[in-house]
Amino acid sequence: xxxxxxxxxxxxxxxxxxxxxxxxxxxxxxxxxxxxxxxxxxxxxxxxxxxxxxxxxxxxxxxxxxxxxxxxxxxxxxxxxxxxxxxxxxxxxxxxxxxxxxxxxxxxxxxxxxxxxxxxxxxxxxxxxxxxxxxxxxxxxxxxxxxxxxxxxxxxxxxxxxxxxxxxxxxxxxxxxxxxxxxxxxxxxxxxxxxxxxxxxxxxxxxxxxxxxxxxxxxxxxxxxxxxxxxxxxxxxxxxxxxxxxxxxxxxxxxxxxxxxxxxxxxxxxxxxxxxxxxxxxxxxxxxxxxxxxxxxxxxxxxxxxxxxxxxxxxxxxxxxxxxxxxxxxxxxxxxxxxxxxxxxxxxxxxxxxxxxxxxxxxxxxxxxxxxxxxxxxxxxxxxxxxxxxxxxxxxxxxxxxxxxxxxxxxxxxxxxxxxxxxxxxxxxxxxxxxxxxxxxxxxxxxxxxxxxxxxxxxxxxxxxxxxxxxxxxxxxxxxxxxxxxxxxxxxxxxxxxxxxxxxxxxxxxxxxxxxxxxxxxxxxxxxxxxxxxxxxxxxxxxxxxxxxxxxxxxxxxxxxxxxxxxxxxxxxxxxxxxxxxxxxxxxxxxxxxxxxxxxxxxxxxxxxxxxxxxxxxxxxxxxxxxxxxxxxxxxxxxxxxxxxxxxxxxxxxxxxxxx
Length: 660
Prior knowledge:
With 660 residues, the chain is of the alpha/beta class. Helices cover 43% and strands 15% of the residues.
């Protein structure tokens, strides 16, 4: 791994440099002219930091001592060294040396000018200043109103006792400080924070949680809860898993209202075989579809309704077949309502469960029933882009404070509900990735069909993240995170790494998917038609799966299974993984990269070239978001195939042309 590279800033803005490179526009300020001269020389050969400083300082004196017109003529004469280079290429060459352009506000403040009138050594520190130290006082919590509407203030005899407002300290970016000051000013407001990957929303969440105010953290899973408690501590703030919250709210609602049920519905997995489920629900054929296909359609109808504001399932939620008659559509609605009733029906502990009930199903039922979230102080919610819509409806009605944090570009699949209720704040300054890598990430986000965040991601001011474009996978680093778009590429590469004795480990979710996918292929070779991996669900025979793999370029994987690669071989591969703390490679799928950070991140070619033909907009956008997620894991090095972004842009544009 290369050592982290501190950025060295030229005293000229990106706008001024781009205007000079593209249009020959020469700024008037001598310091900016000197910076442009240094920029051009740095594109011809690497320059040390000391050389850059002396060059800028001496050139500024030179430009100060001559008429503006002469300086402009001399600078334009030097511009020939750029030949046909565009701004992106120049920025890339500078980025390889850790050289960056200064922010507008730093130049406007003339931070380059020292007390002696010379180019200041302190300019670099001013440019790198990402974090600031602040002390924040929380809003005074004076208790409930009395009967006359006046606030009850603590008294000692006839004297009002001065309430000491808690103060806590934060070291954060300007965006983080702005957000925490707004939140600290009111304990009852709702705030929706949109934060790009790597901009420190987790740091902000932990800072708020330890501020002294009563917060309740809503955790998507037990794993999120464990990570939160490990960082904050169970005494500082309570953390509640969404599944537990749904169950507890359902129980309280049934017990506190006149509901016919003796027991409340709960989150649970189905345990009844398919045929028994069809019989229990009275599922029949509709419009020529088999009962099994009807049930699958009913699941989609219920899910679509759960993500709507409608109080009841209706014809508008039947969207999978435009050719249905009015009566057929009504039959689907009636069947969906019937299944919904059976899903919520309370069952004995030993009764087989015909239908799976998720937390969002319970939240939808509670929302329709008019239930309210219990008092929990200020809600603190991370990963808000993945929250189920029914819970968001309950949150919007929550009378106390709420802070939701999310990144729309990290919603990798499905429809994202609008979590942005309340006052909007945005975190744009990365504390993880810097320099040219952020430019590449922005170029990926530009491929998304819609602009989900108006502001642009900005790189860390403190360091550069080097970007490398590789032509051969043989040149890739054997450390950090290696990301793939296909389990079959992981299988090939993991077997190769194992044979070469290279230490590697799979992300847990990726290991699970890989094991299921290979067991499907092994089972299909034996005549088993049951699939366990979601990516194999369209293929019910070995010939169908093998044909698919051949078409997308995995003929070697087909040969592997045809040479009797079996469960024992797979267990041997999984058993060869390195210890969790040992150095080496970590392998994972694009969709499993959330909440990770690595010094080096490599995207395997299959992240891009498994996209065959034209893509419909939804699939293209999902891949754009997944690539963004993976790229934003890197702190020091980002490795991409040489033609990766061109391939992705081609697939996305072809898809839009075909489906729009």
